[in-house]
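Hi P.,

Sorry for the delay on this. The queue was packed all week, but I finally got your sequence through. Input first:
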Amino acid sequence: MAKWGEGDPRWIVEERPDATNVNNWHWTEKNATPWSKDRLKTLFNGFQVAANNIECTITEIEKIEGEATANNRKGKLIFFYEWNLVLKWSGFLPGSKDAHTGKVTIPNLSEENDLDDIELTITIDESNDDSEKLKLFMYNTGRGVIREQLGKYVKELKEEYSKGLILPKKDSEQKIKPDSVTTITSGFNRKIDIDSEPIVNSQVAQPIGCKIDVKTLKLKVDFQCRANELYDALTKVELVQAFTRGPVKLEPTKGGEFVLFGGNVHGKFEELVPNTRIAQLWRLKQWPAGHFSKVVLDIEEKDDHTELRLTQSGVPTSEASTTQNNWERYYWNSIKQTFGFGSFLV
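Then the structure:
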């Protein structure tokens, strides 16, 4: 981040041979979901785990759910992927002709987890002495080699989708024709019309003072950006659509309504101080009818980062843990991943 009074190259517009994405400043995205599904199937269909005369084979990808995108933000490459996989396996013990079958469940393959932290659950379809031995083999030996295959997918994803995202500047001799990338998309690469109505258009009820046990959440998060960039990410329709990965309703004025995440979050703005403070009445859909919390987001730009402090009062005690986790996952982590305001994956 440049010091006050000094020129910041991020704001300098350079000429480009193709007049596209000047200085790599604009956020662009490639949908890597179809490629990822095909690659994961190729990596695992027929994959063998063999050692000590024991052999097990992945026979089928029973489930592959999720998405993957590659993004360029300010010349930085950011990869987002989240997969839930179920693999079927079959194996034989030495000297036996009887096949035993089971499954490998991988519920959390994502950029948030190191390969060693990815959970793999091994199960068998029918329990007996031989199948239990194969299950133990898949647990002790199979998990390691399956993680290696997952590592290949992540490596190839970054190699394949790095191409064409960082474009040449005016002095570059390399001529690269821009790929067909979208600037604002949903998580499944569906172009969003920012003038269209969101999929849910709920009316915001006034708080009615439900008698429930409540508590106050206080969170502090640091972002590698300027205060105005973070404020814009929270108040501009096209940017909110980007990090929530879906259509939204957003009226960033005092008394204006917002509806996010398919209607699971809604409320209205009570105060907006540009680049400094946002205050909202805010509720989750599953909360008691008519009950709203008060959310205050204080934004303060430091020397080398921007600090956001959240104070949320009136959160139902039974929902406090879930609400805090949702802020961290669906707001802060998603904002950092989408716009490059946190750690970069390159």
